[in-house]
Write a structure and sequence with these properties.
- It is built from nine helices and two strands; from the N terminus they run H-H-H-E-E-H-H-H-H-H-H.
- The chain is mainly alpha-helical.
- The chain folds into two domains: 80 residues, Winged helix-like DNA-binding domain superfamily/Winged helix DNA-binding domain (Arc Repressor Mutant, subunit A, Orthogonal Bundle), CATH 1.10.10; 80 residues.
- The protein has a two-stranded antiparallel ribbon.
- Helix 1 packs across helix 3, helix 6 runs antiparallel to helix 8 and helix 7 runs antiparallel to helix 8.
Length: 190
């Protein structure tokens, strides 16, 4: 059995976040909240996966003093570092996308444009919040001098993604804000 047999793409997210400095579950959750642009899943996975990886020998868990009691701190083992290095050498897969807004447009013919548009406009506040998260991450980048270059490149990807989402939402608002033949179909006499 290869070292990577029990690893999933999400396993590598956790290994990369633990990185050289190690991380506790709360650190991992905080980083993922801020970096949700590149991977999303429920918070419970961010707590469960490091435990699983420790059982498989990719991470080692150590109890350390925390503010209110002991806290778990994970570090990569040699097996974890080797698995991460081997995975980094493999070709990157195309991004997996779970875009609820796109699905809402796919099913929009079951509603009216105003309703769908109202639903999609909620994205604007989330996009703005993501820009704020990027600013916060940028302020903390100096805590990881060994990753500065890579964090800068990730920041660029996130900003471009948010810029694209914002422009796309502008286009959708323009398009759905205009009355269509379908919108007037119910208003005419038979």
């Amino acid at each position: 059995m290869s070292n990577n047999a029990k690893l999933t793409p999400f396993s590598f997210v956790i290994l990369a976040l633990v990185g050289r400095n190690g991380a506790g579950p709360h650190d991992i959750v905080r980083m993922m909240r801020e970096r949700a642009l590149f991977w999303t899943t429920s918070e419970s996975h961010y707590y469960a996966e490091p435990k699983r990886l420790a059982k498989l020998g990719y991470l080692v868990a150590e109890e350390q003093p925390g503010r209110t009691g002991k806290r778990t701190h994970y570090e990569l083992t040699d097996r974890g570092r080797n698995a991460l290095a081997a995975w980094l050498a493999q070709p990157a897969a195309m991004p997996r996308v779970q875009n609820e807004a796109a699905v809402k447009l796919l099913g929009a013919d079951f509603s009216d444009d105003a309703t769908v548009l109202s639903s999609l406009r909620g994205l604007r506040a989330q996009i703005d919040a993501s820009y704020r998260d990027l600013e916060a991450m940028g302020r903390r980048a100096s805590e990881f001098p060994h990753r500065i270059r890579y964090l800068r490149l990730l920041d660029d990807l996130h900003r471009r993604t948010l810029d694209t989402q914002r422009r796309w939402l502008d286009d959708v608002e323009r398009e759905l804000g205009e009355p269509t033949q379908q919108d007037h179909a119910g208003l005419t006499d038979p």
